[in-house]
Amino acid sequence: MSEAATQLADQLDAVTRDFIGVVQACTPEQWARTTGSEEWSVGVVAHHVATSYPQFDRLVQALAAGVQTIPPVSAEQLHEGNAKHAREFANAAKPETLDLLQNGGNALVGTIRGLSDEQLAITTGIFFGGEMSLTQIIERILIGHPASHLASIRATLAESGEAAE
C-alpha cells in the first residue's frame, strides 16, 4: 500500500459519503426532479453513479494486475450506454441505490487503498483514445465522476430553493 493510494482512496471515500448523504436526504419529490446537467431525474443520476462503482473496481483491478488490452471507449459509446441506463432505470429505487453506493463505494475504496506506487503509475489508452496513468484515471474519472454528478444534483436542488447537505 502506498501513501498516494491512501490519499486517493480517502478522496473517493469522502466524495462517496457526501453523495450518500445527499441521496439519503432526498424527498420523493427531489428524487424525481430533473437535473439540469444530465436531464435525468436525481434518482437516475444517483443510480448511474452507484452502478459505476463496480465497473470502475473491475477496471482498477484489471489494470493493477497488468491487463493492457482494455478496449478504448469513445464518447459516443459512453453517451449511448448512459442513455440506455437512464431509460432502463428511470424508476430506480432509493434504498437499492443507497445500497449500491455504499457497497460499491466501499469495495472500490478498498481496492484503491491496496494499490502500490508501481500500479498507480501504470498507463493505458482507454477513454477517448488518450493515455492515462491509473492515478489519473482515479483522480479524473473515479473521483471526478461522482463529484461532478453530485454537483449537478446539488445545483438542481438549489435551483428549487431546497439546499442539499
Number of domains: 1
| Average pLDDT, all residues | 92
For the CA atoms, what is the radius of gyration? 16 Å
Query: What would you give as the CATH superfamily?
Result: dinb family like domain
Shape: globular
**Main sheet?**
2 strands, antiparallel
Q: What is the CATH C-level name?
A: Mainly Alpha
Instruction: Give, in spatial order, the strands making up the sheet with the most strands.
Output: 1-2
The count of strands amounts to 2
Question: What is the correct CATH architecture?
Answer: Up-down Bundle
**Helix/strand/pairing class, anyone?**
mainly alpha
How much of the polypeptide forms β-strand, as a percent range? under 5%
Query: Within the CATH hierarchy, at the fold level, what is the topology?
Result: Four Helix Bundle (Hemerythrin (Met), subunit A)
The number of helical elements comes to: 7
Question: Strand-and-helix sequence, N→C?
Answer: HHHHHHEEH
Poorly predicted runs are none
Distance between the termini: 32 Å
DSSP helix fraction? 55-70%
